[in-house]
Amino acid sequence: MHSNSQFQTQPQSQQQQQQQLQSQPAKKVPIAQKYKSLGFIAAGTYGRVFKAVRRDGDPTIEYAIKKFKPEKEGEASLQAGISQSACREIALCRELSHVNVVNLEEVYVDPLDRSIYMVFEYAEHDLLQILHHHSTLHGSSRQIPPYTIKSLLWQLVNGVAYLHANWVLHRDLKPANVLVTSTGVVKIGDLGLARIFQKPLKPLYDGDKVVVTIWYRAPELLFSSKHYTPAVDMWAVGCIFAELLLLRPIFKGEEAKMDGKKTIPFQKDQIAKIIDVLGPPTVEKWPTLSSMPDFNQLSTLRMDKQESNLRNYCFQYPYSTTENGYLLLAATLEYDPMKRLTADDALKHAYFVEDPTPGIVEGHGKYIFPNGNVYVGEFKDGQFHGNGTIHFTNGGRYDASWKDGRVIDGKFTFKDGLVYEPENWGYCTPSDRRFYHEVLNGFNQ
């Protein structure tokens, strides 16, 4: 009989067995074995959200776990796959990273039923809860303190500026989607309607006919514009700002529902509510208004008020805001999206420079120099540390990475658009070079 020794497995050493185990991918377990649910948070058309902690992790670190509804129910759900909306949200959230945008920890597919979960950092509150809490109070405690309003708003605008800088439209900003942690950090959440707006293959309107919750929907959307810009998000920011001041939605219209033919109705009541506060839109103030598909519907509305009444709304509560606060609100609620304030410009608005200035929260915030220049970015131990931008009073800016108050890398952009970096240092004027020298040596005030 011939020996079969050449086909037999040689005994493995303990080290070889360990190496083989390490090289094999870890077997996925059901999500219930990885996370312990602490309770239900919310439900919507997308699915359900639960609060949880890791079973093998720090029990004080909590997560919000979003479970998507399958495209089909029952057995068919195992082959149904994931919705297009969920795919978009996952793809966007995996690429975004900012202190004022909710962080996606992981995407998890349960091996038992193929359910798809998004695991987010947990935020204890949202602006809707904060508004409701204050609306139930009486006396001076009813009003949200001006400092709190300013800090919440600055962080919201900071997050929106980050999204827009990365070509992302949120398209559903409202108090319920603006989360707030127990330490006061704002986190923009729910990017289910968010879209990339850089070189879209087709108009965004073709993909989603209805975006943004009705009370926060910009006029260009209400007049059925086929093309829109990041200005739709800034209108929503203005509505949220007003709500923080008033403790109620400023434009609380009644939504007209779609009929059986899926025809999108003109939102007459919502437009009327906006006109009551801002006065009627005109072609003189908004030149492209006449090109809007629903422009002719404007003649069906009563125009009792011809002038804006926004100032009276803004100062309805004593000490709620300042003249600069009113000017910021008015700039975000411009009818014409081309004139509406951008998120970047809002961050530099005088409202955020005057006292009380927004506080630095968890290493992010702003620092105002004695000469009026403003640093917006990350801090550590009271020094610039991480990514940040210095906005100069003359219109220029300095974008840089910092470490312990000193520059690692950066570029200096003047108001005329010229960009200066260390390699073309010689092109700076003496005054520019002197200021640039100060920047490179850090600011430790």
From TrEMBL:
Annotated family: Belongs to the protein kinase superfamily. CMGC Ser/Thr protein kinase family. CDC2/CDKX subfamily.
Span list, region Disordered: 1-25
Protein kinase domain: residues covered: 35-352
Bias type Low complexity, positions: 1-24
Keyword tags: ATP-binding, Kinase, Metal-binding, Nucleotide-binding, Nucleus, Repeat, Repressor, Serine/threonine-protein kinase, Transferase
Protein name from the UniProt record: Cyclin-dependent kinase 8
Gene3D superfamilies for the chain: Histone H3 K4-specific methyltransferase SET7/9 N-terminal domain, Phosphorylase Kinase, domain 1, Transferase(Phosphotransferase) domain 1
One GO CC annotation: mediator complex
Catalytic activity from the UniProt record: L-threonyl-[protein] + ATP = O-phospho-L-threonyl-[protein] + ADP + H(+); L-seryl-[protein] + ATP = O-phospho-L-seryl-[protein] + ADP + H(+); [DNA-directed RNA polymerase] + ATP = phospho-[DNA-directed RNA polymerase] + ADP + H(+)
SUPFAM superfamilies, sorted: Histone H3 K4-specific methyltransferase SET7/9 N-terminal domain, Protein kinase-like (PK-like)
Nucleotide-binding is among the record's keywords: yes
SMART domains named in the record: MORN, S_TKc
GO molecular function: ATP binding; cyclin-dependent protein serine/threonine kinase activity; metal ion binding; RNA polymerase II CTD heptapeptide repeat kinase activity
Matches recorded under Pfam families: MORN (PF02493), Pkinase (PF00069)
Species this protein is from: Chytriomyces confervae
Keyword Heme in record: no
Location relative to the cell: Nucleus
E.C. number(s) listed in UniProt: 2.7.11.22, 2.7.11.23
